[in-house]
UniProtKB/TrEMBL annotation:
Topology within the bilayer: Lipid-anchor
Pfam family, one: BamE
Protein's UniProt name: Outer membrane protein assembly factor BamE
Keyword Membrane annotated: yes
C-alpha cells in the first residue's frame, strides 16, 4: 500500500503528463465570417442590374470602398481556430447610367 504523499505525487505526475499530450488539444469551433455566397444567386447576377436588385439577391455587401461607393465586396471565410479552411470573394462594380442611377457593370467572382 502506497503512502499518502506518494499517492498524491503519482496522481499529480499523471495529470501533468496527460496535460502535455498533443491529442488532447482544446476543441476549436468553425467560425464563419462575412456573407454566405449562394451560387444560384451569383448565377442570377447580370450586368445592368440596379443596386436594389443586387441587394435583393445577395444582401448588403460586407465592404464598400470609402473612396469608391460603386465597388461592393462580398467576402466569406471559414476558419477553424487560426487555420483558414475556405475563402470566397465576390467584387461588384457599378457605373452610372444616363439618369445617374448606378447599374452593375462588372462581376469578379473568386471561389
Amino acid at each position: 500500500m502506497m503512502k499518502k504523499p506518494t499517492k498524491i505525487l503519482t496522481y499529480a505526475l499523471f495529470v501533468l503528463l496527460l496535460g502535455g499530450c498533443s491529442w488532447l488539444s482544446p476543441f476549436k469551433l468553425d467560425i464563419q465570417q462575412g456573407n454566405i455566397l449562394d451560387e444560384e444567386a451569383i448565377a442570377q447576377l447580370s450586368t445592368g442590374m440596379t443596386e436594389e436588385q443586387v441587394v435583393f439577391l445577395l444582401g448588403t455587401p460586407l465592404l464598400t470602398a470609402p473612396d469608391n461607393p460603386a465597388q461592393w465586396d462580398y467576402i466569406y471565410q471559414l476558419r477553424r481556430g487560426e487555420k483558414l479552411l475556405e475563402r470566397e470573394k465576390l467584387r461588384l462594380m457599378f457605373t452610372p447610367d444616363d439618369q445617374g442611377n448606378l447599374r452593375l457593370s462588372e462581376i469578379n467572382h473568386q471561389p
